[in-house]
Write a structure and sequence with these properties.
This protein is mainly beta and about 90 residues long. The chain contains no helices and 7 strands. The strands form 2 sheets. The protein has a 4-stranded antiparallel beta sheet with strand order 4-3-6-7, with no helix packed on it.
């Protein structure tokens, strides 16, 4: 089954780890969005093998700028499904 774990640590500063598990190999998209729903950064965009995965987010946007403190959403898309969770960046 496709699973998306709660990031840890949460709240975090300056970085956090996002874990997820894939039932089978395939295209995966893991993206960070701000509270308004605007894309902040794509962490994964490509094919990954089945099994457990971990990705670290360093709290930076696509332009490598530090993002503001606040609530962010992370969304995993794989296998025709989408799972989303919230996390909090503190300063």
């Amino acid at each position: 089954a496709l699973t998306l774990a709660q990031n840890h640590p949460n709240p975090f500063n300056p970085s956090t780890t996002i874990g997820f598990s894939l039932a089978r190999e395939g295209r995966v998209e893991l993206s960070i969005y701000d509270a308004r729903g605007a894309l902040v950064r794509k962490l994964v965009d490509g094919s990954l093998p089945a099994g457990d995965q971990q990705v670290v987010w360093n709290g930076r946007d696509a332009g490598d700028r530090q993002v503001a403190a606040g609530v962010y959403l992370y969304r995993l898309r794989a296998d025709g499904r989408e799972i989303q969770r919230k996390m909090t960046l503190v300063k």
